[in-house]
User: Which sequence fits this backbone?
């Protein structure tokens, strides 16, 4: 079991904690292959998915994870929550606490919102993505996928490409993979590479590399991870057009050929086909995009179990 | 009010006074400085203490009219004297803003009625602080303003700011700018740097401040206007002011206690009491502010006292308002952190603020209004926000151990605050 109340980010997780989560996730993967996909582990526990930002896959993944562990899962999305009635996040959280929720999974557009909640609730808080800060369960499911495909989390070259500035996925993966001694190459247009990004890793900073050249990032990579492009960035002049973006930072099969022959291609989803990733690559033999989704359920089962089980 | 302040170390750098003596006050006016027998007058024993000209915080937000749940002129004035300030200059971003003489009149009248500290209103530069057309600066001066500013909002339009610098000269009013290029700072909630990137919060680059300081200094030179930079926060901005002063331009600048005390690392836990504008900057910027305070580049310490109700400060970091309270901690932070000679401390807190703003000077001379700050530089104390006189509680300094305190505040010969050990 994890000796912590909440899971707020990868940055403050130890390697042992990460390995415990991944090992537990692997043991839960088998549950999803059974004809009756359910174990009684969290029977009688209440898990609330509190989503202030649109999400289909993360919310569904947490819901399925909770239900496969026999927990009672309640979904609250921003359109139905009382936030639109002016209630503060803190009152919402205290209300959920008063209903004796065991765990609240929160996604919020404001970085730090889960940390605010965690200080005030008895329930365990799981960060389901906060602004441009962290998305720890995504990094853990990515690590689960990488470890199963590559057999290790160290000594890999991992290229993370795209909108690094606004990506919580990039931050969480960078923290996780550098902790294990893999080389992370963050790559994007200079407008999308924020000031100080080279210093975001507290330890093992020597494993973090930056480049504006996608060819350099992909060269001999073991893993290529594409980030989703948000179209509203165009109006803010981070890049001029989708066409030009794809020209420099789109993953085509030609570019993918620069990577190691056994490269795996990852994407946190949802994909913009033809914007950051070509369809033939997304659906090609190196793509593990749907393995990531499967791993997501197992990793979230592991996290819920390790936080509120027992 | 009559009073004799006995046996204190009387220090007034502007009048070259530094001697242990008495200050005799009659009807709120200093009548004599020197030893002598005075009968039938109450005595304030200042033995072992420093008697300084009343401290003047030239950058506070009193929130009245309009946001009285956060602060009122009465509670803000009480916090001021508890922090050793005999006077404050109140920024105009009230609701409605102080952009016309009727609001100025109200603030002046309410301060006379309810505030233990003197309150000098600052008028808006532009109508409704919208940055579009000049407010009635002369009319507001007649009603009692001591300067003009659109604080909280910079005047982005260079032509309009030029006009303000020109027009204010006929009243000898300082034009005070909150320097922030709004295009560069848009959406930002903290200093742009490693911490903002790690925390996933949108940054406000140092350039947002430096570009506007630079533009303003050029306009100040061109117009020969009386220009004052509010709350300097970056190294380059300090250097720009230093260069302008060396060139002999008529500019002044202030810095806040939080900008010489804290860095952007204080945001790490998403503490909304570390959210202010300009934001807490890097350690190098803090060092530059301290240098500027020591070498005379920065003329004044001003608190930017910005009370906000807990209901707003408990919101998500992105949504919470900018600002912290500061009146009661400013002097203690300066004496604890800055290691300044006493004369420099008094210049920063009283002499220079009086020169920057359009006010009738006070100090330790016969005929001055008897506004005095009594300091104990050896007093160790702990700031307890729960005992704050402010109506708001948004401070990052709760529980801080400080050395040096204003132990009494005298306004018009009346002891309006006293905290003897």
Assistant:
């Amino acid at each position: 079991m994890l000796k912590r109340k909440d899971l707020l980010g990868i940055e403050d997780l130890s390697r042992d904690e990460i390995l415990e989560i991944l090992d537990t996730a692997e043991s839960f993967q088998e549950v999803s292959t059974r004809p009756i996909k359910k174990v009684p582990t969290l029977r009688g526990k209440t898990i609330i998915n509190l989503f202030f930002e649109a999400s289909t896959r993360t919310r569904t993944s947490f819901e399925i994870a909770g239900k496969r562990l026999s927990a009672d899962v309640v979904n609250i999305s921003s359109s139905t929550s009382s936030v639109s009635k002016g209630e503060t996040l803190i009152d919402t959280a205290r209300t959920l606490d008063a209903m004796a929720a065991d765990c609240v999974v929160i996604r919020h557009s404001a970085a730090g919102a889960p940390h605010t909640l965690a200080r005030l609730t008895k329930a365990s808080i799981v960060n389901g993505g906060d602004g441009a800060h962290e998305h720890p369960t995504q990094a853990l499911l990515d690590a689960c996928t990488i470890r199963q495909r590559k057999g290790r989390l160290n000594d890999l070259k991992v290229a993370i490409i795209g909108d690094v500035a606004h990506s919580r996925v990039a931050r969480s993966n960078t923290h996780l993979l550098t902790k294990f001694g893999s080389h992370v190459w963050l790559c994007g247009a200079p407008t999308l590479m924020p000031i100080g990004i080279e210093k975001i890793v507290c330890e093992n900073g020597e494993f973090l590399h930056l480049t504006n050249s996608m060819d350099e990032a992909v060269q001999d990579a073991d893993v290529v991870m594409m980030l989703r492009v948000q179209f509203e960035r165009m109006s803010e002049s981070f890049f001029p057009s989708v066409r030009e973006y794809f020209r420099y930072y789109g993953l085509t099969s030609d570019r993918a050929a620069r990577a190691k022959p056994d490269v795996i291609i990852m994407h946190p989803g949802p994909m913009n086909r033809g914007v950051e990733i070509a369809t033939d690559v997304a659906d090609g033999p190196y793509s593990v995009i749907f393995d990531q989704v499967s791993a997501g359920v197992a990793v979230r089962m592991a996290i819920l179990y390790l936080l509120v089980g027992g | 009010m009559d009073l004799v302040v006995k046996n204190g170390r009387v220090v007034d750098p502007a009048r070259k006074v530094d001697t242990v003596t008495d200050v005799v006050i009659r009807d709120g006016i200093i009548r004599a400085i020197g030893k002598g027998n005075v009968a039938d007058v109450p005595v304030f024993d200042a033995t072992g203490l420093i008697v300084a000209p009343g401290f003047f915080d030239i950058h506070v937000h009193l929130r009245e009219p309009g946001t009285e749940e956060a602060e009122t002129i009465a509670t803000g004035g009480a916090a001021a004297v508890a922090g050793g300030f005999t006077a404050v200059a109140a920024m105009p971003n009230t609701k409605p803003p102080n952009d016309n003489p009727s609001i100025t009149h109200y603030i002046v009248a309410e301060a006379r009625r309810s505030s233990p500290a003197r309150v000098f209103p600052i008028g808006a530069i532009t109508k409704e602080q919208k940055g579009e057309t000049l407010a009635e600066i002369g009319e507001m001066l007649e009603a009692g303003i001591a300067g003009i500013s659109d604080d909280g909002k910079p005047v982005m339009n260079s032509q309009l700011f030029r006009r303000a610098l020109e027009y204010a000269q006929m009243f000898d009013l300082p034009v005070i700018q909150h320097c922030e290029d709004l295009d560069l700072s848009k959406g930002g909630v903290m200093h742009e740097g490693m911490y903002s990137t790690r925390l996933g919060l949108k940054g406000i680059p140092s350039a947002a401040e430096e570009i506007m300081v630079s533009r303003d200094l050029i306009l100040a030179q061109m117009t020969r206007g009386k220009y004052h930079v509010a709350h300097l926060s970056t190294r380059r901005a300090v250097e720009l002011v230093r260069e302008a002063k060396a060139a002999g331009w008529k500019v002044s600048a202030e810095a806040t206690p939080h900008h010489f005390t804290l860095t952007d690392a204080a945001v790490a836990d998403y503490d909304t009491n570390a959210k202010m504008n300009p934001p807490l900057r890097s350690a190098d910027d803090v060092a530059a502010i301290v240098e500027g305070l020591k070498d005379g580049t920065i003329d004044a310490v001003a608190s930017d006292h910005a009370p906000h109700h807990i209901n707003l400060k408990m919101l998500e970091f992105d949504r919470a308002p900018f600002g912290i309270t500061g009146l009661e901690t400013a002097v203690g932070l300066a004496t604890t952190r800055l290691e300044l000679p006493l004369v420099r401390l008094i210049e920063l807190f009283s002499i220079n603020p009086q020169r920057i703003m359009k006010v009738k000077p006070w100090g330790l001379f016969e005929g001055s209004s008897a506004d005095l700050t009594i300091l104990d530089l050896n007093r160790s104390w702990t700031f307890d926000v729960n005992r704050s006189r402010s109506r708001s509680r948004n401070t990052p300094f709760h529980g801080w151990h400080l050395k040096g305190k204003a132990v009494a505040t005298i306004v018009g010969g009346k002891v309006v605050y006293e905290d003897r050990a």
Summary: The mean pLDDT of chain B is 97. The two ends of chain B are 25 Å apart (CA to CA). The first helix of chain B runs from residue 73 to 82. Chain B is about 30% helix and 20% strand.
